[in-house]
Specification:
Elements (H helix, E strand, L loop, with lengths): L1 H9 L1 H7 L4 H29 L1 H21 L3 H30 L5 H29 L3 H17 L17 H19 L1 H4 L16 H25 L14 H31 L4 H25 L5 H22 L10 H24 L6 H41 L5 H10 L9 H10 L4 H34 L11
Helix pairs in contact: 1-6, 2-3, 3-4, 3-5, 3-8, 3-15, 4-5, 4-7, 5-15, 6-12, 6-14, 8-10, 11-12, 11-13, 11-14, 11-15, 11-18, 12-14, 13-14, 13-18, 15-18, 17-18
Main location: membrane
Organism: Pengzhenrongella frigida
Keywords: Membrane, Transmembrane, Transmembrane helix, Transport
């Protein structure tokens, strides 16, 4: 599930050409995939507790496989959205919460940190090798074969799923809380959609020539509206419980300090992780001009230490304090990010990412080795699927905000740096600088020097001004990356203040 997202990201232009649409069309499909998952995850978890975890997992796999096949055969954007955004999104919403509960039911408590760590590591490794696989498939075969391969993998998973044990489901099950499902999906959907569109709309103040609602960006309006609907969801769930019904989410779970601590750390982990996986490929592929394959190879060090930490810490230090591991993980992520943005300069090459990614990967793996076990152990066994839904909702929110925040800060810093450099450069006439200020008021694009040079040449700009713009673009890109990475480093440090909710003893 994680792999095809990274493959889709690295193959956007090729996919757009194959299905007869634009890059914006494919980006819409990517946005909708995230949106469907975020909206459906809590309901998917509840359905798993009603029909059985293994059955929900199997049904989710079938739906996901059907989506992969539809995507592989998609002749146009509409079919692509049906297959990839909707069918795969719904399948993921059934699979991911069920995985959390099935691990708890099939692995003894002492083995769960390692099991959850391996699952989280699998997702992060897929993000790292996605550009490599996507680049190879797109260059030598077709992106469609990646999705054909997924269908075969789903068939193999379904065959092996018979070995998974599951607790029997009660014969009499209360009906699904449809009102709660609608409210939770609407609230989360509006908030996440607003976050995902923040780069085009702005967070609070509308971007130049962008849409506005009563003078505000639609992003903040949607986030506020989504928050109000989620408050109504909470009111409704309390009412259902008072009437003796079966709520979608037992709100008493949020009074559990250990459980909320685990969810909060998941949010921080995925916020920083998604921001890293957004910024580092930009540096490697756009700023340095590496191919998708080379970009994937350069990100691989992160996967190595991530896997070693996620599997090794529970194996070799089974009794270590989860709180201590989480704090070491956050500090390792912080150290990796700081060492990365302080190493960036115009003469730096791709080699500067290796050591920082080793630190960042270890930090992510350290958190992954503990958090799944922490959240599951905080609640009774019958509520593990609900935990899975909430846990994956937290990770979706974190990943969405991390990508959007990193992108917004990067573009804002890049634009400010580029325009300031153009204004102060003696080779750029004042009228050209003034025109650039007007045209780039909504944000300068993060583009390679080769693309910028082609655009300026086609516009008939003189060689002196072109070279000045290229020099400023080189420095501005690095300024944008530094600001985005610095913000991610601060967020990793901020996570330390919430780590006190993580227990000091293994479950």
């Amino acid at each position: 599930m994680t792999l095809d997202s990274s493959v889709m990201n690295v193959s956007i232009a090729t996919v757009a050409a194959d299905v007869g649409t634009t890059v914006t069309g494919i980006q819409t499909a990517i946005t909708l995939y995230t949106l469907v998952m975020a909206m459906s995850m809590i309901t998917g978890g509840k359905i798993g507790s009603m029909i059985g975890r293994r059955r929900a997992f199997a049904i989710g796999c079938v739906i996901y496989g059907a989506g992969s096949l539809t995507t592989a055969l998609a002749p146009n954007l509409t079919v692509l959205i049906i297959g990839w955004s909707f069918l795969e999104g719904i399948g993921a919403a059934l699979i991911l919460p069920a995985i959390v509960a099935l691990v708890a039911g099939n692995v003894p408590p002492e083995g769960r940190p390692r099991a959850y760590g391996l699952i989280m590591a699998a997702g992060a490794i897929a993000i790292a090798i996605g550009p490599l696989i996507g680049g190879l498939a797109t260059t030598y075969f077709s992106w469609r074969w990646v999705f054909v391969g997924e269908v075969l993998i789903v068939i193999a998973i379904l065959a092996l799923s018979r070995r998974i044990h599951d607790a029997p489901v009660e014969a009499e099950q209360p009906p699904l809380d449809l009102v709660g499902s609608t409210l939770s999906a609407s609230g989360l959907g509006l908030a996440v959609f607003g976050v995902l569109r923040s780069s085009e709309w702005g967070w609070v103040i509308p971007k130049v020539n962008g849409p506005s609602i009563v003078g505000l960006s639609p992003t903040i309006v949607l986030i506020l509206l989504g928050t109000v609907i989620l408050w109504l969801f909470g009111v409704w769930e309390r009412r259902v419980e008072k009437r003796g019904g079966e709520p979608l989410v037992r709100l008493a779970m949020f009074g559990n300090r250990e459980f909320t601590g685990g969810l909060t750390m998941f949010f921080f982990q995925f916020l920083v992780q998604a921001g890293l996986f957004f910024t580092i490929p930009l540096y490697l592929s756009v700023a340095l001009g590496l191919s998708a394959i080379d970009t994937g190879l350069r990100i691989m060090p992160l996967s190595i230490t991530l896997l070693l930490a996620a599997a090794g810490i529970p194996k070799f230090f089974p009794d270590v304090s989860p709180r201590r591991v989480v704090r070491v993980g956050l500090l390792s992520m912080f150290a990796g990010i700081v060492s990365l943005f302080t190493s960036m300069d115009v003469d730096a090459g791709a080699e500067i990412v290796t050591i920082p990614l080793l630190f960042a990967g270890f930090g992510i793996g350290a958190l992954a080795s503990q958090l799944g076990s922490v959240t599951v152990s905080a609640v009774p066994p019958e509520e593990t699927v609900e935990v899975g839904g909430l846990q994956n909702t937290a990770t979706n929110l974190g990943a969405s905000i991390g990508t959007a925040l990193a992108g917004s800060l990067l573009i804002a810093a890049l634009t400010a740096s580029f325009l300031a450099g153009i204004e102060e450069n003696p080779d750029v006439p004042p009228e050209v600088a003034a025109q650039a200020t007007v045209e780039l008021a909504g944000g300068a694009p993060f583009i390679s020097n080769a693309d910028l040079e082609d655009a300026l040449t086609q516009a008939g700009v003189s060689s002196e001004v072109t070279q000045a713009a290229l020099d400023e673009n080189t420095e501005a890109r690095l300024d944008g990356l530094r600001v985005a990475l610095a913000a991610l480093a601060l967020i990793a440090l901020l996570g330390l203040f919430f780590s006190g909710r993580i227990p000091t003893e293994q479950p």
